[in-house]
Amino acid sequence: MLEGFFLMLLASPLTQATEPSAPAQTETSPPASDQPDRRRPGYEKALPPPIVQRNPGAITAPPPEAFPTDQIPIPDRWRLIQSLGLVTEHWWDPYHQNTLKGDRPINREKVKWLPIREDDWFFTANLTSDTVFEPRSFPIPVGVQTTERPNSIDVFGNSGSYVLSQSLIAGVSLSKGRTTFKPPEIEYRLTLALNLNYANVPERRVLFVEPSKPSQRFDYFVGVQEAFVDYHLRNTSTRYDFESIRFGIQPFQTDFRGFLFNDDQLGVRFFGNRDNNRFQFNLAAFWRLEKDTNSGLNDVTKRPRSDWVFVANVYRQDFLIPGLTSQVALVYNLNRERNTIRIDNNGFPVRPALLGNLRGRDYDVLYLGYNADGHIGRLNLTASAYAALGEDRDSIFTSRPAQIRAWFGAAELSYDRDWVRVRLSGLYASGDGDPYDNVESGFDAIFENPVFAGADTSYWIRQTIPFAGGGRVIGISGRNGILNSLRSSKEQGQSNFNNPGTALIGVGSDFDLTPRLRVSGNVNHLWFANTATLQALRNEGSIPRDIGWDLSAAAIYRPKASQNIVFRLSAAALLPGSGFRDLFTDIDRNRSYFSVLANIVLSY
């Protein structure tokens, strides 16, 4: 009975009113779609426009049968991310996809004023703030004409001082090409640096040549650190081995640790690779720019120096053994500044150096070098060896031409055990044993910036030690340099191969306590390789070789576990040896000297 009731209900007029059905069609009636006045009730959405690929630079998509029916190919990966809405772009966000960071191609509709035609141009902007506060102490000579304090009659006065430096580095780059695998077709890059610095020292004639000027100084300067065009000449293999050429002010480093030449200079460089990037090469020529005295930045308002550097080097991975990259380098330094007189911004002569006969010099030096970086099993290895061969046209001791025959060697072994790295460092730069013969055997670099034995957290590398009593405005070692070269300035002076040389043995450790915090420590012992040059300049019968112990510790904290925000704090002390005490005995009879470096780096 229930079944009969439901059948009657389905056939009732109420059900027919609420559930209308299509009119019945006879066998002779045409289909509904063929009847012009008949259509399905309700809203019919228009079909979407067909998908057409309008990117001539994109790779042709495979045929449709190669894809599942629910997938549609698109020209590139950037539009995929954008269409899925996975990333919301903000110009100020460096951590996610950002057109200003080169993560997406430029939208030409928004920058019609740019002279670009294709859709594969990328713009990259970067901004870095580098803040340094550095209290330190080192031997400071007392002014000859006047002093900061009455009755200061010793050779050396108070040693404490401090420096505050703020650098802002802004760079932009415009490049063409899909750079996922292959190099850009062309790149334009410009980087400017603004430096503001304040120094306070306890003695006169340290910051300025005039004794009437105060013992503190504020200075600022804007330098051009990069301004080049990089043009991709060709690809030499299907895996994008390439050849490129670069013109303009550009960074270059001749070896892995910056022992010989590490600078941003004006030049031309032809470079490339072969064999799936296992073989790399450089041919380069640089015309050295003048540097600002207090900031060390490039000064493009002055004519470049009569000093040229020519470089040819090749790299080979997994040579001599697997895991080790070997490099052979030929570097030729041609200097023609014999007739140049250069006074720095503080009034001190830097060319020629006020050392020896006080005459200008020309010299030609060929550096033959072998460098290695990699690992041998569990041991990490970095090594460098150079021979310096050439001629000095006017030796500072004899005023005659002299042959240059000097050499340099450095190596660092390290071993990793979980989150700890233990390092052993050794370095030797030959010193001149007889300053009055016709051979100069003290090794000197062109422009060193070594990352070695603690780098700039080390006292000896970080600080300039003035050679008071032996040469005016001469440093035994320069700032951010490890060699005892007796130069007037690393930035503005000439190389000097009449020097006492350098010897170093050190141990150190790095502790990665967390992914954000690293603590390091270094203990180095330093010597002069030969003190004959110091004895001649000081008119002393003997000077011991022992410089002393260099102790340093540093902590680096990265709160975002990236290089965008970096806090660094380091402290170093020099415990003088007998040679250092022989050269420098100050008014306080200091038994040690210190250096503290507080550094904040913010990068976009």
| Tally of helical runs | 6
**Distance between the terminal alpha carbons, to the nearest Å?**
82 Å
Order of helices and strands: HHHEEEEEEEEEEEEEEEEHEEEEHEEHE
Strand % is: 35-45%
Helix content: under 10%
Number of strands: 23
Poorly predicted regions: 1-36
Radius of gyration: 34 Å
Mean pLDDT over the full residue set? 87
Could you explain the architecture of this structure?
It is a single chain. The protein is mostly beta strands and 604 residues long. It has six helices and 23 strands. The protein has an 18-stranded antiparallel barrel. Strand 17 and strand 18 form a beta hairpin. Helices cover 7% and strands 42% of the residues.
What labels describe this entry?
single chain, 604 residues, mainly beta, 18-stranded antiparallel beta barrel, two-stranded antiparallel ribbon, 7% helix, 42% strand
